[in-house]
Structure formats: C-alpha cells, structure tokens
Specification:
By secondary structure, the protein is an alpha/beta fold. It has a six-stranded parallel β-sheet with strand order 2-1-3-4-5-6, sandwiched between helices. Strands 9-8-7-10-11-12 form a six-stranded parallel β-sheet, with helices on both faces. β10, α10 and β11 form a beta-alpha-beta unit. The radius of gyration is 21 Å and the shape is globular. The relative contact order is 0.14.
Length: 365
C-alpha cells in the first residue's frame, strides 16, 4: 500500500499559491472562451461546462465524443484496432477543427485518453490545454509522454502524485445547477442509495437492506443491477434483502438523483473498495448539494472538505453503519442541522464552478 505523503492535502485556497493577490484571475481580465472536450460520462462534460459558465466574463463550449481510448488501437483483433483507430483519428481531426474555428483561450480535456500528442502540440500553439483525470491514472493507463504534453495535468485521485508528480490534485466537484433543494418534496424513504451496482458494493448493500428491514426503516435502492434473467436470479438468491429493496433497475440521471435525494432522510454513499484509492466520489458532494444528510464510508480525504462531526457522518464497517444510521434516524433535528451545514459548505466551496476557477488560476500562474 502507498504511504500517503503530506502533499496530498487539498485546500480550496490552493490556487492562491499560483497567482498574486493583485491578479487573482489573469486569464479572465477580459472575456474568456473555454472549450471542454471529452466523453460525456454521467454528464460530467456538461456539468464542468456549466461550472465555467458561472465564472465572470467566461463563455464555455463543449466538444463531446464517444469513448475511444488510444490503447484500444493497440490491442485486440486487427479489424477492431482499425475501427478504433479510425474513430480516434476522427475525434482528433474534429477537435482541432473546433479549436481552430472557436479561437479559444483555454482548452480542457477530460480524461484525454484519445487525444494524440500531435493534437495537444497543435492546440498549444494557440492556447493552453489542460487535462483533468476523473479516474485514477492507474485505471486510465495513460502514457507519461502524453501527460507531459499538456500545459497542466489535474487529477482527482491524490495517490496519482506517485504516477505523475508534476500534476495537481483537484477533487471532483458537483453541478450546483442540478443538485439543489426542491421545495415541497415529500419524504418517501428513510434511507436511500443511488449509484452503480458494482460487485464489491453488493454485500454491503445487502447488509444495509437487512438493517433497514430489521429496524423497520424504508430503504430505496436505485441503480443498474441486472439485464438478464440469469443475473436477476443470481442476485435474488445471493442478496435477497437487497433484491427486495431495489426500486429501479436502471441508470439514474443526475436530475432524477437530485429528486431522489430530496425524497429521503439519509443518503448512503459507498466508494470503490480499493486500498490504493483515496479519491472522493461525486456523491460525496451531490448528496449534501441536494440538501440530504450524507452517511458515507470513511475516506481520509473527506476530512479535508467536510466536517465529520458537524456536517456529515461516516462509517468504517457495517456495524458502525448500523449505529450511525440508527442514531441519526432517531435524532431528526440534529440530522437536519448537519445536512444544512453541509449543504451550505458544498455550495460555497465544492461546486464545479469553484474547481474551474482554481484550474484557471493555476494555468494562468
């Protein structure tokens, strides 16, 4: 396991180290045009573009393309490599055409696995071009030479410093245009979980469902769990309590997730089980952004952005989950007060607009 160096620490004021107090926004002294490019996974491209749009004197365009990492050109059957190669070349060609026509002041690539070094070099002749990895570089398997081609590299996984020491740790944010309070929303669930049903989460979700059933709490589970009868039968046999708690077996849109969080007293968050990963997932901010109380599995990095005692609650194992959930479901006023504090904190410090401002300041510095 990697030792966690002190340089992993994140503070919303990190960008102030990059520029002087007298020139807080060197790039945006005039009107600035930004292009955000990438695969619009879970609406991240749209959300980040909305963040840039909230900056003063900033206009943002997007270039969205299919998922096509360069590594797919190197592996598999020859016809698949040719197909992915043609698709990737199309993406790079149209990205360059978009940049040339738009005359942008700043270009941001999200994940960037399908962008050629030659494309980056061409863009850099007219504007700085940065990369923001919204997944660990250990999963993206990006070429170090490609990383060095960008003006700046940002990542949301702090352990990526071990892979690319020249980058900047910038946690993920949330779209405050999507996640917010809804007036008059009735409470339908005591506990809710919304997300991707990855294998490592299923045993934990089943234990949460057993706790809710035993304690008499209403649990709503929303996410994509199965697509065929065999998988449905396996899930029903292996995790019967979870199976009964599933209210929707399909992907949940950001707008629907906000509606669901507004309908619950407590929202549970589960990160991937990866001992090398310290990054914070989007739900850490989306849940309090919607005004719902957050009960999340423990991550050291969460301590640096939200307060464990006054804003959110965490658990390190399922026994702690049961104790925390039982306590806050029976202490409603304290639960509401903490959710209110967290709501104000994330809307003040952890929106995509806040992240975009920091990014612009670092690039300008």
């Amino acid at each position: 396991m990697l030792d966690k160096p002190t340089s992993f620490a994140y503070s919303p004021s990190i960008a102030q180290q990059a520029v002087s107090a007298t020139e807080p926004f060197p790039i945006v002294r005039r009107h600035m045009k930004v292009l955000v490019s990438g695969y619009n996974h879970f609406g991240f491209i749209t959300a980040i573009a909305n963040g840039f749009q909230q900056l003063e004197r900033c206009r943002c365009d997007t270039f969205m393309h299919p998922y096509a990492p360069v590594r797919k050109m190197m592996k598999g059957a020859w016809f698949k490599r040719v197909w992915h190669g043609l698709g990737t070349k199309w993406i790079n060609q149209h990205l360059l055409e978009k940049v040339k026509a738009g005359r942008y002041d700043f270009v941001l690539c999200i994940e960037g696995g399908c962008v050629f070094r030659e494309t980056i070099a061409t863009i850099r002749t007219t504007a700085p071009v940065a990369l923001w990895c919204l997944d660990s570089m250990r999963h993206l398997n990006m070429d170090p030479e490609l990383l060095r081609a960008f003006t700046k590299v940002f990542f949301f996984e702090p352990t990526d410093y071990e892979i690319f020491p020249g980058g900047y740790y910038l946690p993920i944010g949330f779209d405050n245009g999507t996640y917010h309070r809804l007036d008059g929303q009735e409470v339908e669930h005591d506990i809710i979980w919304v997300g991707s049903a990855h294998t490592d989460r299923l045993p934990k979700l089943d234990k949460i469902a057993r706790f809710a059933e035993k304690s008499g709490y209403d649990l709503g589970v929303y996410g994509y769990f199965y697509s065929e009868k065999r998988r449905k039968k396996e899930l029903q046999e292996d995790y019967p309590a979870l199976f009964l708690a599933i209210r929707k077996n399909a992907k949940v849109s950001p707008d629907e997730a906000n509606l669901l969080y507004n309908s619950a007293r407590i929202a549970v968050n589960l990160h991937f089980h990866d001992p090398l990963s310290q990054g914070i997932n989007p739900r850490t901010f989306e849940v309090p952004g919607s005004g719902c109380f957050l009960l999340t599995d423990h991550k050291v990095e969460i301590e640096k952005v939200l307060d464990f005692k006054s804003e959110i609650a965490t658990f390190k194992n399922m026994d702690e989950f049961a104790a925390r959930a039982g306590y806050y479901l029976t202490h409603e006023e304290e639960c509401r007060t903490m959710a209110e504090r967290a709501h104000h904190r994330v809307h003040a410090n952890h929106t995509f607009a806040a992240r975009c401002r920091e990014m612009v300041e670092i690039v300008a510095g």
